[in-house]
Specification:
With 203 residues, this protein is α/β, with parallel strands linked by helices. It contains nine helices and five strands. α7 crosses α8. The longest helix is centred in the C-terminal third of the chain and has 17 residues. It is globular.
Length: 203
């Protein structure tokens, strides 16, 4: 099979990662959570590295660190992601992944607009900030982190503001993206909606 790219964008805890993994598994596509690239840079930055140097030195093993899903790393990722040179250093990796033979699913903030503007399928997955914060809160509590609903909602809103306002590749839906609002959708329904879009594009 030739290259076929599915681009999923959207804010934190919208469900796009779960949907991306399900689509990749169903169609046998490779999957890249591009947020992990920024989290890996954020983790290296927290360890004392300069963000641009960390982005340029990133290796595959950095994506397998156990701490990439922590709230501290998430905040660091959001901060380093606004640096144009960091984003530029990570673009080539993402573009090459997207056009690999056999198909690829990428989820992030700027896949359909910047990384893969020619993607065969573009989805923008979103949900209300309150619902997304609750999902994130439950996820963090399950991991044993000491957080409150209020602090998680504050973090979600801060990340949304940074992602939408940054000069480099702000988070916006591509003009030709299909929006999936998962506020009141079950994850099963959201996955089925995404699968239907991919099936339609494949013909």
């Amino acid at each position: 099979m030739s290259a076929f790219t599915v681009a999923l964008d959207g804010p934190a805890a919208s469900g796009k990662g779960t949907i991306a993994r399900a689509v990749a598994e169903r169609f046998g596509f490779a999957h890249l959570d591009t947020g992990l690239l920024y989290r890996a840079v954020g983790a290296r930055h927290l360890a004392g590295e300069e963000p641009i140097a960390a982005a340029r030195a990133l290796v595959a093993e950095d994506l397998e660190r156990d701490d990439l899903r922590s709230s501290d790393v998430a905040q660091a990722a959001s901060i380093v992601a606004v640096i144009p040179e960091v984003r530029a250093a990570l673009v080539d990796f993402q573009v090459a992944f997207a056009r690999r033979a056999g198909g690829a699913v990428l989820d992030g903030r700027d896949i359909g607009t910047v990384i893969c503007p020619e993607a065969e399928v573009k989805l923008f997955v979103t949900a209300s900030d309150v619902v997304r914060a609750e999902r994130r809160y439950l996820e963090l509590i399950a991991k044993g982190e000491d957080v409150t609903r209020e602090s998680v909602l504050e973090d979600v809103r801060a990340r949304d503001a940074r992602d939408a306002a940054r000069d480099a590749a702000p988070m916006v839906a591509a003009a030709d993206a299909v929006t999936l609002d998962t506020t009141e959708m079950s994850i099963e329904d959201a996955v089925q909606a995404a699968l239907a879009e991919v099936r339609a594009a494949r013909g």
